[in-house]
Task: structure prediction
Amino acid sequence: MGADRLIYIRTDGNSRIASGHLVRCVSVAQICVQKGMKVHFLVSDQESVNLLSALTDFPITCLKTACYKHLEQELPELCALLAHAADEALQAKKSIIFLLDSYYITEEYLSAVHSVNPLVKTAYIDDLQLFDYPVDLLINYDVIPDDQLSSLEAFYQRAGKRLLGASYAPLRSQFQGREIKVRDTVSDVLITSGGSDPYHFCLELSKKLCKVAVPSIETVTFHIVVGRLNTDREALYALSREYPFLQLHENVSDMASLMAKCDLAVSASGTTLYELCALGVPTISFTMADNQLTSARAFEETGAIPCAGNLCTDYETVMEHVTLFLKSMLTASASSYSKRKSAHDTMHRLIDGMGALRIADAMMKL
Result:
């Protein structure tokens, strides 16, 4: 089915840039392999090799001349590798797709790769809209309100094909083809701030929950994800021993299953919002940096996930909005169910978790 395609994926993940690029590329790679394509990863350092090896067993080459934030210096080595692969592909009647996922991309880099050989097709996952990328396939899975789609399409003039919008989000396999059932009443709530919690959100919200005047509060379990960089770990555990309805989770490997058992979520902006949408868990978001606001507001504008605000500038407002959201949803009423069902439907229509499949299908057609 896809045996005539060889996919080279160029990306990195290390202590400076985290593992997000690797994770989403692995999601695409797994679907490519299911469709019969061969996948080979190219990275710039041993740290990336180690992180990638923990996620998958795909072949990995560490480019000798590479630096993750100076991509152009690897071009002679990379182009020689791709040219050799193209010669072999010609004999085997195959074609090559070079998928790049890096924030340090330049126009010169893409142009050089694109000109290696007609058999080498280029694809790029874009988050930043730095310039009009000269590629065969452009992927931008931002949440894009309808009134902004045409301007984004106009921006990407040089791409042969464009995959735009949240339906192309390449989520992990555990989020693919899965959604929750909206239950009559709320029994479980997820609270997560990501890997770190610089504003002590989880701790402060937990303290507020212990004082909330909602009759059913102690019949609800609040599942608090304690990220590995959360400095409030001991304080959170002390609070959970006093209030058993606070349940803490660390080093969660199957986040989809934890999310799926919850009826509501409170989450920091980021990839987690895409995952919650794929499952259809009604959510309120908050941001911890100014550069997260655009994405969070886009989720809000589509009617999928309301945003409580930015913790950096409006801490008390965020706490108030989150508390009011929970109070309104925790009441055992037809109104609460209706709101949650409406949110669930909107979220799952926006993102169904099958973005990696759509990207792999598009690469098969290049």
Remarks:
- The chain is about 40% helix and 20% strand.
